[in-house]
Structure formats: structure tokens, C-alpha cells
Amino acid sequence: MNIAFIGMAAALGLSAAGSAFGAGFAGMASVGAWKKCYASGKAAPFIMIAFSGAPLTQTIYGFLLMNFIKSAVTGGADAGLALGVGLFGGLAIGLSGLFQGKCAAAAADALGATGKGTANYFIVIGIVETVALFTLVFSLLLLG
């Protein structure tokens, strides 16, 4: 067995795990915020769906990283490097998804309570997203 396969699996698996946790946290907070809105007779902002789904993009980045690792190894890249990039890149992307979900959860709570600040919340969520994008790009540079 080639250890590069472990790196490929880690890139996707860790990224997807972070997405799952992040989307779970954000989704639970959105449901709770909607409940508070309904209980107080306020309109429930539909935009919280976007908060709940924001961490899902990290799974896509993990899939891309997995495929880039496969291409790099096929092209002669070191299997140990592929393992390291998959493990640490996947972990960083997954943690981005996890914390993006936590930011989105806080955003849902705040938006549900005040009805204000949507653009600001998306900016913060986007900043956390950038960590995953940087990790993906820098990992590609390591493999190249």
C-alpha cells in the first residue's frame, strides 16, 4: 500500500469532518434562532440557511486537495510529502469548516435577536473561509 493513499483519504475525510461539525453547529443555532423569532412573533430570516451551509465548501476543498495529491503522486511527487500534505492540509481545512460553523452559529443567534448585521456576519464567515482557501492553494504549491 502506498502511504500517499492515506494522505488522500485524510485530505477528504478531515475536511468533510470539519464541514459536518461546522454545519451541525450552524444548523442547530439557526433552528434555535428561528424558534426565538417565531416565539416572539418576529419574521424568521431565511438567510440563516446560508449560515448553516457555509461550512460545506470545505468538503469541496478537501476533495480538490485529494485529487491534486493523486495527480502529484502520479507525476512523481514523494509519497511522504503527499501523506503530510493530506494530513495537515485536511486538518487545517477541516478546522476552518468547524470554526466557520461556530461563527455562523453566532451570526444566526445575533441575527435572530437583532435582525441586523447580516453583511458583517458574512464578512466574518468569509474571513474564516479564507483560511481553507489559503491552505488549499499553499498545499498545491507544496505538491507542485
What Rg, in angstroms, do the CA atoms define? 18 Å
- Give the CATH level 1 class: Mainly Alpha
Shape: elongated
Distance between the termini: 23 Å
Helix content: over 70%
Question: CATH homologous superfamily?
Answer: lithium bound rotor ring of v- atpase
Largest sheet: none
Structural class assignment: mainly alpha
**How would you spell out the order of helices and strands?**
HHHHH
Q: Helix count?
A: 5
Strand content: under 5%
Q: What's the total number of strands? A: 0
Number of separate domains: 1
What name is given to the CATH topology? Four Helix Bundle (Hemerythrin (Met), subunit A)
Q: Report the uncertain regions.
A: none
Average pLDDT, all residues: 97
Domain V-ATPase proteolipid subunit C-like: 83-142
Subcellular location: Membrane
Pfam family, one: ATP-synt_C
Transmembrane segments: 46-69, 81-99, 119-143
In short:
The protein is an all-alpha fold and 144 residues long. The chain has 5 helices and no strands. The two termini are 23 Å apart.
Provide structural commentary.
The protein is mainly α. It has a single domain, classed as lithium bound rotor ring of v- atpase (Four Helix Bundle (Hemerythrin (Met), subunit A), Up-down Bundle), CATH 1.20.120.610. Helices cover 85% and strands 0% of the residues. Helix 1 runs parallel beside helix 4 (79-114) and helix 3 runs antiparallel to helix 4. The longest helix is centred in the N-terminal third of the chain and has 36 residues, at 4-39.
